[in-house]
Specification:
Layout: H1 4-10, E1 17-20, H2 30-44, E2 49-54, H3 60-64, E3 70-73, H4 74-87, H5 91-100, E4 106-111, H6 121-130, E5 134-140, E6 143-145, E7 158-163, H7 169-175
Parallel strand pairs: 1-2, 2-3
Antiparallel strand pairs: 4-7, 5-6, 5-7
C-alpha cells in the first residue's frame, strides 16, 4: 500500500483527484494505513484533492496531520442512513438516487464567490425551486446550515443542492435571475 512505485504507475503525479478507501472493514488499524497513503499521495502531488475513508471517527486525528481535503466516515453514514430509513421509510431510496449519478437529478456542490449584496439564501432557495433545483444546505467552515431564514451567502460557503447538472456559482446566479 505504501510502495511509491504503485503510486507512480497510478499516475498520482498527474492526477487531480484521489479517493483512498479503507483496506479492511474489520480492522480499524486500516485508518492509519489510509492516512499514511494520503501522506504518500500528497508528497507526490501537492495540488491533488484527496478524500479518505475513515472507519472510526475517533481516528480523525490521524488525518489532521496530513493535508487530506475531506474525510468520510463510511460506517457512521451507513448507520445513520439505516436508522433514518427505519424511522422514515423511503429515505434510503432517495439517498441512493441522489448520490448515484445515474438518475435525472443528483447532489452537487458549488462554492459561493462574491455574492450580490441583495442576495439571501431564502430568496435563492425559492428561485432555485422555480428552476427545478433544491437547495439542501450550506456549509460554512465546519458547520452545516439547513435553515435559510436569516442567512446570507458569504464567499467561501459551499451550497449543496439537488439539480440536473453541476453549476458554477456565477452560472447558478444567472440561472435564477441574478446577473
Amino acid at each position: 500500500v505504501l510502495d511509491d512505485e504503485t503510486y507512480r504507475r497510478a499516475g498520482i503525479d498527474r492526477a487531480r483527484l484521489a479517493i483512498v478507501l479503507a483496506t479492511d472493514y474489520d480492522d480499524t488499524n486500516s485508518d492509519a494505513v489510509v492516512a499514511s497513503a494520503v501522506a504518500v499521495i500528497e508528497s507526490m502531488n501537492e495540488s491533488i484533492y484527496t478524500v479518505a475513508e475513515c472507519l472510526a471517527p475517533r481516528h480523525r486525528m490521524l488525518f489532521d496531520s496530513v493535508r487530506c481535503n475531506a474525510v468520510v466516515y463510511s460506517h457512521t453514514i451507513s448507520g445513520n442512513l439505516l436508522t433514518q430509513e427505519i424511522l422514515d421509510p423511503g429515505v434510503a431510496l432517495m439517498m441512493d438516487a441522489l448520490t448515484s449519478n445515474t438518475h435525472e437529478s443528483c447532489l452537487f456542490a458549488t462554492e459561493v464567490m462574491d455574492p450580490p449584496a441583495e442576495c439571501s439564501y431564502r430568496k435563492l432557495a425559492v428561485q432555485m425551486v422555480e428552476q427545478d433545483m433544491s437547495l439542501v444546505c450550506v456549509q460554512r467552515e465546519h458547520h452545516t446550515i439547513s435553515s435559510f431564514l436569516d442567512i446570507n451567502p458569504t464567499g467561501g460557503d459551499r451550497m449543496i443542492y439537488v439539480g440536473k447538472q453541476r453549476m458554477t456559482w456565477d452560472r447558478l446566479l444567472a440561472g435564477v435571475g441574478y446577473e
